[in-house]
Design brief:
Shape: globular
Distance between the termini: 49 Å
Order of helices and strands: EEHEEEHHHH
Strand order of the largest sheet: 2-1-5-3-4
Radius of gyration: 16 Å
Structural class: alpha+beta
Largest sheet: 5 strands, mixed
Number of helices: 5
Bound molecules: FE2/S2 (inorganic) cluster
Amino acid sequence: MANIALKVNEKSHVVDVEPRTLLVELLREHLRLTGTHVGCDTSQCGACTVWVDGKSVKSCTMLAVEADGATVTTIEGLSPYAGNGGLHPMQAAFHTCHGLQCGFCTPGMVMRAAELIQRNPNPTEDEVRHGLEGNLCRCTGYHNIVKAVLTAAETVRGGAQ
Ligand code: FES
Ligand code: FES
């Protein structure tokens, strides 16, 4: 067992994990943050995307011990208003633009997209499509997801002015 300390959604945790434990297992099984999904076992679908030190990462590709000392954000902690039941602009845009159907890919998609507009606040449609290449959706055909990301970017830019 390895003893690791990390911060998840602003809360500090010290946990014992097996060296082989994946970050996604730590989040879902130890910390019960089941908003982070597992959609494949091949590092392809992106349903498990979280932020580690502010960067989006597929949490099935990282060992929990590698997150020792890190700050992790999951879909449960993305919104600065989460405690009040409020949505992050990306979550709100997925809702208003109908950017989901079954919702399985949505947490990972939202985490990836929210990071994307932080790095590039005014993306083109092509840049959004390219930025989401590592996140697969089997339902929507992506059109409304892209619309949601562009809408969220516009909302955030409007708020910053
Ligand atoms: Fe991590 Fe599919 S579960 S990429
Ligand atoms: Fe079903 Fe994306 S909404 S997989």
